[in-house]
Amino acid sequence: MILGSIILDAFKNLSANALRSALTMLGVIIGVASVIAMIAIVEGGQLWLVSSIERLGTNLLFVWQKSLTVEEQRLFKGRSTGLHYDDAIAIQAKFPHLHVVPRVFLEQQLKAGDRHFSGEVTGTSPEFSMARNFQAEQGRFLQQADIAEWKRVVTLGKEVAERLFGSESAIGKEVNIGDQRFMVIGVMQPKGIIYGSNYDEMIFIPVTTALRRFQGTDALRSMIVHVPDRDRMDQTMEQLHAFLIQRHDGVDDVQVRNQGDFLDAVDRTIWTFRIVLGGIAVVALVVGGIGIMNIMLVTVTERTREIGLRKAIGARRQDILLQFLIESITISLVGGLIGVLMGIIAAYGFGDFVAQAMPGGGDWGAVIRPSAIVIAFSFAMIVGVFFGLYPAIKASKLDPAEALRYQ
After folding, report:
1. Which of 206, 304, 340, 361 could form a disulfide with 146 if both were Cys (CB 3.0 to 4.6 A apart)?
2. What percent helix, strand, coil does the chain show, rounded to 5?
3. Are 66 and 252 in contact (CB under 8 A)?
């Protein structure tokens, strides 16, 4: 029996029991579709996270105050007062090629006329705009003269300006931050929600103004350091850490992290998702394979006389084995193709749902890579071969005389 006629017979047998064949394929369809959809959504999520981080600037180091244990606080008492604005000035003087961005955050209410806005005010320096790749759309961002003279000037996020001034230009208008009067010098370009933070609701004032007119101390919440040369990120991180420990009288009370650490964390998280979701999809495929084996065993029983007749007229064991194995593979083949189609539809449909449901997730979309389709389809074929082998062997071992007597 030639291979072509075996394959043709397999399709005829499947079409003769269309409903049973469809139900048998269901497990393979769900498994393949799950693999493709899950990988596509996870891949889309990874791209979204990485692009979100990179939209916030590249080549960045993050410095913040480290929490000390009670024992460390007792041991280092009086030796260090933590991260301060002087540290930012000292780093800039020691490493003039770096761009140091001090940051302090204030919870304040803004008032312009009878309109109010409650939000987080960021005290920072002009370098923030460059480091975060965040430019003023109208007016300007902060300048060094604003820092030196503790000026009461403010640059507003896009939404803040619209909430306080509507369609009117905010530039040159006055706004009260707390009980102090500020002049609006700029409105930032729209940037949206990135990594959970709405950049359009941000409010920027000079760091010295925030420290001395509101906070009353020079303590900083954190610093961002932009490193122009990407290849020197790790070296600069070590130098900064050592320099700050030296300034803090030997007390290691700051943390310095590379932006790449966050990207590595994203990669690790994504791989965890891939393994977990891939495992779930593989279970679905194995369940589908068990269904194939069950149906093929039933088929062998139903067609026992046919097997006996084929052997009586000269069919060899390998012909019978090949016949039933190809029927099993055909079920997986058709189920796999339908699963690929369903997986693509589910990936884009569910990807859009995730994008709409997540804050700032509008750019999240499914990414279907050819490798995911090849992997899912190949695994479906393996399932068809593996779970179809036992029924095929059982059929090939049937005794012709016994098979012909089977009722």
Report:
1. 206
2. 60, 15, 20
3. yes
